[in-house]
Amino acid sequence: MKMNDITVRIGGQAGDGSLATGEILSKYFRRIGFYVATDKDFPSRIRGGHTSYAIRGSKKRIFSLDDRIDVLLAFDEDSILLHMDELESGGVVIFDSSRKDLEIKREDVRKVKIPLANIARKELGLEIIKNTMALGVLSKLFSLDSNIMRQTIRDSYKTKSEKIIEENLLAYEKGLEYSKDIEPMEGYVIEGDKVAPDTLLLMGNEAIGLGALAAGCRFIAAYPITPASDVLEFLSRHLPEKGGVAIQAESEIAAVNMAIGAGYAGLRSMAVTSGPGFDLKTEGIGLASMIEQPVVILDAQRAGPSTGLPTKTEQSDINHAVYGGHGDKARIVIAPGNVEEAFYFTFEAFNLAERFQVPVIILSDELISWNKQVVKRFDLDKLKVDRGKLELNPVSNEREFPRYDFQEDGISFRTIPGVEKGIHLETGDEHDVYGHITENASNRVKMMDKRMKKIQVMKNELFPSVVQGEGDVAVIGMGSTMGPILEALERIPREIKFIRIRTLFPFLDDVALHLKDVKIAFVVEQNYLGQLEDLVKLNTGFRNTVGIRKYDGRSFRPGIIERRIREVMGW
Amino acid sequence: MVNISLYDRETPTWCPGCGDYGVLTALKRAAANLGLDPAKTVLVTGIGCSSKINSYFYSYGIHTIHGRAAAVATGIKLSNPELEVIIAGGDGDAYAIGTEHLVHIARRNLDVAYIVMNNQIYGLTKGQVSPTSEEGFVTITTPYGSYEKPVNGPLLALASGATFIARGFSGDIVQLTQIIEEAIRHRGFALVDVLSPCVTWNKINTYDWYKANSYQLKDHDPGDRNRAFQILQDDKFALGIIYKKEEKTFEEKVYRKYVHLPLKQLEVDRSIETIYEEFR
């Protein structure tokens, strides 16, 4: 018996409506009080090709998919070929037999064949709404609340015409009608609440956009790139309402430099990108470090190098985020582990950028950026804007404002153009306190020391690791691996300490403390070389690590981690 | 009128005789004639000899990355349209490494002036070929002569949608002052290409050479875009305002509701609750 935890994979050719169906289903789950985790799997092209969307709904708090799926809703043959093995014994495959009938070999699963497309075409006059019909079949199989489903369908299409809403509602009824003789699934119970909780269902990129708005960000510049474009799209809709600017720049390089210009002029600003664009932004990030300019950069990692797997996830930009670029630089690199953190980290990124006058890199990955999760309504009262040492009424009688004056904490007072007594220079060349170019050796040392001092000063104010559990066996992870790691550990009845690193640069001292009595540490990450593992070893001196790595572009499942730990530990 | 000494800053480190001195003087005079407030003016530059001009001109100044001045300036101007934003740099900055930004800042018609000090050579890196060097031009990196045709920056800017194109000569500070003044006053994107000899590395394109190879525009209607295209393709360099047209600026189009001015509205509307409905 599986209680209140179900994973549905919807597969088809691009254009079959798999994503739209998945969206409605995940909304439905939120409305009945379930948590949600999703994973999109689609090729980097627009027409054709197999696409699938996995949605897990669960009453317990989850952050990722399960190992297996319970339902395979297949609009095409590829869905059967690719995903049948994933289906849990006792699960169900719903196959749209309109294109061809197919012999489905497995005997341990239930098979529901129904010519969805044909019925939709013949009886509704519109083949594409077969996907909404399928929701009717699902409703019958799992005794879902049809009133809540109807409302969810209506709301999902509310930005479209009333006609489209009506068509989809009709398709849903048609799906129910054709399933009236189908017996509900045995062994599954989906018991939701009647009243939707005060939660939100959103993906990481949307949370990042909201976090930026809440932080008072008023400028975003970006070049379209998967999987970061959603943030630009979201803010392009919402920033103008608030008097801000969203601009699609002519290039990745233009975008980062525009954001730096906006920050210089006094607006909270950001640029969003993924690996290839992040490479191109390196020089700009160096400039921001040198002129001590606040700016927020999102790198939503995807599989690299080069174009890599553009629509697939990876965590292989760690080295670049931490070390990328020439010269010694002060910067901050933070890595949220879930959608909720994506919001709060983004909010705080703007504070950190201004407080320490450095570029702040939010290192997300495709899974966090695209994964839809259910979060509590954000607590805005807790969030305080801190613009740091922004001086808008300097009293100095000097002709030029000492923008890079030496202060105890290495952070000088900053001012912005338009301020009467604030005139100064900023330059990527080494400079004196007024921003004038100088190659003087002792000034160089003093300025380097000043900028590097900030790295030590900021350490106390960054995100410490989150530690769960005790014991001398540890698992270390960052970003989206949090979900599968947590579930893997639930399945192993042993004492294991999970250390989730949330700040990658500067590397915080707490990780070494957490590893003090640890004998072996598994480092889980989505890359080949073990970039996180290297970072941990280098910064903590801890040597006895075992890497659990994945680099096929697909996210971790708990089982992979569980099996590897059991294997190495002999458990 | 303000005294031009208001804009004095450091003493330039340019070579004696460098054309950029003429540009600096013309810029200061233009600023004085316009009464520019140094506190409300930002001089944005890239990298190169000419890009050091904001070390020598008193106002807010940001000396950025090679080729990226126009992008940084776009961020500044959009963030605070009340600022007078002027971009300055060399031909390498504008017409080689930063060409992409020139095209796009022109088509956006951002209300800034861009002064390009064009000496047809790379000076700060000691004498390599530039994007505006003539074909066959011999330099340390083109010992057998350049194999490439020169980039025609003003023509490119015009084709990209710039609403003000002018060319000046650092040997004629009076005219250059007028041109820069007009360019700053112009509402929209203004490109000023300045023939500004490099006396150290370019022994071909000298003051005398430019005098012999340029001419003054007479009885020219700057509103005639077709004529401007022709002029910019002349063998000799036309001097004066080549094209000028009033069009809506980028800032005017971008700001739909109200302009967020960093100095006046530090407290911004940070509410997001109205957006929550999208996520139910």
Rounded average pLDDT of chain A: 96
Query: Under CATH, the topology of the largest domain in chain A is which?
Result: Pyruvate-ferredoxin Oxidoreductase, domain 3
Integer-rounded radius of gyration of chain B? 20 Å
What fraction, in percent, of the residue positions of chain A are helical?
Answer: 25-40%
Lateral strand order in the biggest sheet of chain A: 11-10-12-13-15-14-21
Number of helices of chain B: 10
Radius of gyration of chain A: 26 Å
- Write down how many β-strands of chain B occur, each being a DSSP E stretch of 2 or more residues: 10
Shape of chain B: globular
Oligomer: heterodimer
The largest inter-chain interface, given as chain pair and residues per side, is:
A-B, 71 and 58 residues
Q: Strand order within the widest sheet of chain B?
A: 2-1-3-4-8-7-10-9
What's the number of structural domains of chain A?
A: 4
CATH topology of chain B: Rossmann fold
Describe this structure in words.
The complex is a heterodimer of chains A (571) and B (280). With 571 residues, chain A is an alpha/beta fold. Chain A has 19 helices and 23 strands. In chain A, helix 1 runs parallel beside helix 4. Chain A is globular and about 85 Å long. With 280 residues, chain B is α/β, with parallel strands linked by helices. Chain B is 31% helix and 18% strand. In chain B, the strands form two sheets. An eight-stranded mixed sheet of chain B has the order 2-1-3-4-8-7-10-9, with helices on both faces. In chain B, strands 5-6 form a two-stranded antiparallel ribbon. Chain B is globular and about 70 Å long. The N and C termini of chain B lie far apart (61 Å). The interface between A and B is large, with 71 and 58 residues.
